[in-house]
Amino acid sequence: MKKITCNLPDSLHEALMERMTADQSSCDHVVSMALSQCLGKPLHTLFQVSTSAALVEGLYQGAVQVSRLLRHGDFGLGTFISLDGEMVVLDGVCYRVASTGAVTVVEGNQLIPYAVVTRFRADFSEKRHQLNSFQELVRVCDELRESNNVFYAFRFDGTFSQVKTRVMHAVAEGTRLKSAASGQEEFLFEEQQGTLVGLWSPGFAGSFSVPGYHFHFLSKDRQRGGHVLDCKALSVTISGCSMNEMHVSLPETEEFLKADLTRDPNADLISAERNHES
Ligand SMILES: [Zn+2]
Known about the structure:
alpha+beta, seven-stranded mixed β-sheet, 37% strand, binds zinc ion
């Protein structure tokens, strides 16, 4: 980290102050984001709303607007109020996959309870012809990762022979994630062109992230998607980057401030997020 001092026109200084207040962000953060965009130098920072421990305990109230989320990243995943659908953020657009299977673009003023996004820029990229199982896909990502101790974003673009996804139904307030996941819808797509949006989080991040791999799918025509339980690829380009900075925005809702989040969420997360047949 380097420290600089510089002179700004009054109008820019005022705009900077307004943005810091609106986003509840530091001067360092807003200036770094602006310089990163202006100079074309990506900042590999993860921006997260709420924590996985809060989700596990059934805290699904809206915390942050989608427009704010998209100012921090163009690639990522998350969920919606009452767990009503799966979120895919791809190329700067936030999509909602509903439990009916329908995909819609989410308006900027909507509040969301949990999401993780980054500005995706590929540090590495390679083509693969066939990936015969989710396990094989995971092995390929493992080979591309140089560390177990930083975060990674993975993007798979191409043709998938099969993608099995799940989409959560809306649940009553306070329903724990584990029981919410037992009422999910499952979809099986065949011969689909599309993108897997993936994140890998280190084990030590388990109380605020979903540890290990977490993938959501969106078809090329933006008509199908969901949280990936299983998939097979025919031909894909895999790209990704590592991230060693994280910005976590904690909800200020009464429910979050009063909740008991001391329980280790890992066992419930594994049960809610993985394929139930494997
Ligand atoms: Zn998911």
